[in-house]
């Protein structure tokens, strides 16, 4: 059985302002309403694959859970990393988890933010590499290059027509001239960061090449404990792990690494220009997502989260409009978005990291407007979910139900509110919300007071 391990970390700067630290690109519903994370999960939701092991950031736990739920896919484990530690620790942690169920398990290690358009070609290559993995090889999948791209690492693969071939050399990201030479030579492929290996092989490789890291990760895995649908690790122990990639830790040291070249129309979508290149276009080469219009424009990309975006008389330009930020850039400057994000971070701007929508265990909130003494946000409460019993020291709240029926409790008094009804929460009142129905509840919350930050919450236990 192959256990897919889906890596879902990332900080979300290259597709800003839509992608941010609290909502990186793998969770953005850019592809007919689906995200790259969901497409990756569906890719391995087939016969021959076990339920996925998902390893991702604690910050994104509710997005991972909700997007899996939307697909009706139940994970083997959703393992939460307290901090990012690159790809080596997850590679071993997945092996340890899979081996507990099946000592002969194979693990397919997959980034969650890659687009693969020819999924059948990719899966055929995975299955063709199974025997090599079962025989103790670590298989890396190399993408046949379509251009001299300097943003990827390369793998020099031995000549031959076999599905799986020896690796001659791993090469760091080259300059343009060297990348052109690689493309001309024909024996080099892009390193996609996708691996197939047996649990036993990876555990043995860590014991041989990274014995101290192996002991540290094994000790961290002993701290596993459940929290709702997630598995947590001890933060202090995890933070001490080496921040190292699987390539440096194992691949470049081992003599049993092989490569399976494949051409599945793969892209890691590292910029808005890359997003434009893979989406459908009109007869003038324009791509619009959301409420967008084009006039006398060519090869442009426009994205609108809420407002109408019109592009007139432009060529090769990207316009990305969210509810709190707008990006306008030439496609040739797509990689410079990261520079803008770095500047915003240096200025302490929330737009660098925080998305207007914040996911919660019960649903989400989304900022609408805010001023010196007020804030307005929408709320969605999923069926059957309840907010914690809480109170605030510095703000009052006013709730207006837009749709659905919600059960509210304020200082021990419980009643139902439905569409167009409202309630007021006084300063210091203990309150909670519960959706007893079968459809999501949608509400507007108006906060008013001297301090409106998220940390003005006192949580209470006991009866509501």
Q: CATH H level of the largest domain: which superfamily?
A: Spore Coat Polysaccharide Biosynthesis Protein SpsA, Chain A
CATH topology of the largest domain: Spore Coat Polysaccharide Biosynthesis Protein SpsA, Chain A
CATH C-level of the largest domain: Alpha Beta
- Low-confidence runs of at least 5 consecutive residues: none
Structure summary, number of beta strands: 30
Average pLDDT works out at 93
Radius of gyration over all CA atoms, rounded? 24 Å
Features:
30 strands, alpha+beta, mannose-1-phosphate guanylyltransferase (GTP) activity, 464 residues, Spore Coat Polysaccharide Biosynthesis Protein SpsA, Chain A, six-stranded antiparallel β-sheet, 23% helix, 12 helices, five-stranded mixed β-barrel, Jelly Rolls
Give a written overview of the molecule.
The protein is of the alpha+beta class and 464 residues long. The protein has three domains: 2-267, Alpha-Beta Complex (Spore Coat Polysaccharide Biosynthesis Protein SpsA, Chain A); 275-343, no CATH class; 357-459, Sandwich (Jelly Rolls), CATH 2.60.120.10. Helices cover 23% and strands 33% of the residues. The protein has twelve helices and 30 strands. α3 (88-101) packs across α7, α3 (88-101) packs across α8 and α7 crosses α8. The longest helix is centred in the N-terminal third of the chain and has 14 residues, at 88-101. It is globular, with a radius of gyration of 24 Å. It starts with a strand and ends in a 5-residue tail after the last strand. The mean pLDDT is 93.
């Amino acid at each position: 059985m192959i256990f897919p391990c889906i890596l879902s970390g990332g900080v979300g700067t290259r597709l800003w302002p839509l992608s941010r630290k609290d909502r990186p690109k793998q969770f953005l519903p850019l592809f007919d309403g689906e995200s790259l994370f969901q497409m990756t999960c569906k890719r391995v939701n087939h016969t021959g694959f076990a339920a996925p092991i998902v390893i991702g950031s604690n910050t994104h736990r509710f997005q991972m859970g909700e997007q899996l739920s939307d697909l009706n896919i139940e994970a083997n484990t959703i393992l939460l990393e307290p901090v990012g530690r690159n790809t080596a620790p997850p590679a071993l942690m997945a092996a340890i988890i899979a081996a507990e169920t099946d000592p002969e398990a194979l693990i397919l290690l997959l980034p969650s933010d890659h687009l693969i358009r020819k999924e059948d070609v990719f899966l055929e290559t995975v299955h063709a590499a199974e025997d090599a993995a079962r025989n103790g090889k670590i298989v890396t999948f190399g993408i046949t290059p379509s251009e001299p791209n300097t943003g990827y690492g390369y793998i020099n693969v031995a000549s031959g027509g076999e599905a799986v071939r020896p690796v001659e050399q791993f090469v760091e990201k080259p300059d343009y001239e060297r990348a052109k030479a690689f493309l001309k030579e024909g024996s080099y492929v892009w390193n996609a960061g996708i691996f197939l290996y047996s649990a036993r092989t990876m555990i043995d490789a860590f014991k041989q090449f990274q014995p101290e890291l192996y002991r540290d990760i094994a000790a961290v895995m002993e701290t596993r404990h459940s929290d709702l649908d997630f598995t947590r690790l001890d933060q202090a122990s995890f933070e001490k792990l080496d921040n190292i990639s699987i390539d440096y830790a194992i691949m470049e040291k081992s003599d049993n690494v092989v490569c399976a070249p494949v051409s599945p129309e793969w892209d890691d979508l590292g910029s808005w220009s890359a997003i434009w290149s893979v989406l459908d276009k009109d007869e003038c080469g324009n791509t619009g997502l959301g409420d967008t219009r084009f006039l006398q424009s060519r090869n442009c990309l426009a994205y609108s989260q809420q407002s109408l975006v019109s592009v007139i008389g432009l060529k090769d330009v990207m316009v990305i409009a969210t509810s709190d930020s707008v990006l306008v850039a030439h496609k040739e400057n797509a990689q410079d978005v990261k520079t803008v994000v770095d500047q915003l971070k240096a200025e302490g701007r929330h737009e660098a990291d925080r998305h207007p929508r914040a996911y919660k265990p019960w649903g989400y909130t989304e900022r609408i407007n805010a001023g010196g003494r007020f804030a307005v946000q929408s709320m969605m409460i999923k069926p059957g979910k309840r907010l914690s019993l809480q109170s605030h020291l510095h703000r009052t709240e006013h709730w207006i139900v837009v749709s659905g029926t919600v059960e509210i409790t304020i200082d021990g008094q419980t009643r139902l509110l439905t569409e167009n009804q409202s309630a007021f929460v006084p300063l210091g009142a203990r309150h909670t919300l519960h959706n007893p129905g079968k459809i999501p509840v949608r509400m507007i919350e108006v906060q008013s007071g001297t301090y409106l930050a998220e940390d003005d919450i006192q949580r209470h236990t006991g009866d509501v």
